[in-house]
């Protein structure tokens, strides 16, 4: 396995993240995780071609609670707290992930964002949390969701002349960035919003923002593509 030239140490939360690996790497990773007394969960994505099948596979493989809502937000909440799988850290191994990547690219990207968010959250709690997705050799390494690339704002300079403006009125002191994207109708869930932010596609007050739950206050402007969101104070 190669991820930016090194194998992540599974006992180090500082290296938490989402990684693309080869099929042959999963067995070794499972043995290493078991040796370090981490909880190992294997998810087979063979034949998985859309979000609905994906959520069913995850619910089965992770023995998700009966209350699991089978939507992106419910998945994000569950992966942040795998308390029914007691361990000091978790390693998720996704077999045959390339089928989903090819059949449902948007769903695949949202999954990456949700996994990366869970890994980040666990790191803040000083707990190991890794997700490894088996993909062809030409896409192995650290996933784009875990290591977003900077966006060059210049290509949007012309389109901004016809940019769509949305006014969003707060119902409190702030709104989290991923939820703002959802509430303004630019995506269908908070989990999808997190994936969009992680991709580097969002700016706040002219600067790229990668913190998925960044607090947005009145007076700030959020831009996604050709849409500018003006955040207004609560008028009540």
Please outline what is shown here.
This protein is an alpha/beta fold and 236 residues long. Helix content is 31%, strand content 21%. The strands form 3 sheets. It has a 5-stranded mixed beta sheet, sandwiched between helices.
The third-level CATH topology of the largest domain is Barnase, Chain D
N/C terminus separation:
55 Å
Count of strand segments:
12
Cα shape: elongated
Strand content: 15-25%
Count of folded domains: 2
CATH architecture descriptor of the largest domain: 2-Layer Sandwich
Helix count equals 7
* CATH top level label of the largest domain: Alpha Beta
Structural class: alpha/beta
Quick one: CATH superfamily of the largest domain?
Answer: Barstar-like
The unreliable regions are 1-6, 140-161
Order of helices and strands: EHEHHEHHEEEEHHEEEEE
Structure commentary:
The protein folds into 2 domains: 13-142, 2-Layer Sandwich (Barnase, Chain D), CATH 3.30.370; 154-232, Structural Genomics Hypothetical 15.5 Kd Protein In mrcA-pckA Intergenic Region, Chain A. The chain has 7 helices and 12 strands. It is an alpha/beta fold and 236 residues long. It has helices at 25-35, 51-61, 72-80, 98-103, 105-124, 177-183, 190-198; strands spanning 17-21, 39-44, 90-95, 129-134, 141-142, 164-169, 175-176, 202-204, 207-208, 215-216, 221-224, 227-232. The longest helix has 20 residues, at 105-124. It has a 5-stranded mixed sheet, sandwiched between helices. It has a 5-stranded mixed sheet with strand order 6-12-11-8-9, with no helix packed on it. Strands 7-10 form a two-stranded antiparallel ribbon. A hairpin with a 2-residue loop joins strand 8 (202-204) and strand 9. The radius of gyration is 19 Å and the shape is elongated. 35% of the residues are buried.
């Amino acid at each position: 396995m190669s991820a930016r030239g090194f194998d992540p140490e599974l006992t180090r939360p500082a290296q938490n993240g989402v990684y693309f690996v080869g099929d042959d790497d999963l067995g070794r990773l499972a043995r290493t995780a078991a040796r370090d007394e981490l909880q190992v969960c294997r998810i087979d994505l063979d034949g998985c071609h859309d979000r609905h099948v994906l959520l069913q596979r995850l619910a089965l493989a992770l023995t998700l609670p009966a209350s699991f809502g089978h939507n992106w937000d419910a998945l994000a909440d569950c992966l942040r707290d795998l308390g029914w799988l007691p361990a000091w850290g978790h390693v998720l191994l996704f077999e045959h992930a390339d089928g989903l990547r090819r059949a449902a690219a948007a769903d695949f990207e949202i999954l990456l964002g949700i996994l990366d968010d869970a890994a980040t959250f666990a790191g803040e709690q000083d707990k190991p949390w890794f997700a490894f997705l088996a993909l062809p050799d030409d896409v192995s390494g650290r996933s784009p969701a875990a290591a977003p690339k900077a966006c060059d704002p210049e290509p949007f300079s012309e389109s901004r002349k016809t940019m769509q403006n949305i006014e969003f009125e707060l119902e409190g002191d702030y709104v989290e960035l991923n939820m703002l994207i959802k509430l303004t109708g630019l995506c269908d869930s908070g989990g999808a919003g997190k994936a969009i932010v992680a991709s580097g596609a969002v700016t706040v007050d002219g600067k790229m923002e990668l913190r998925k739950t960044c607090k947005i206050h009145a007076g700030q402007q959020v831009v996604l593509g050709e849409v500018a969101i003006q955040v207004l104070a609560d008028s009540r």
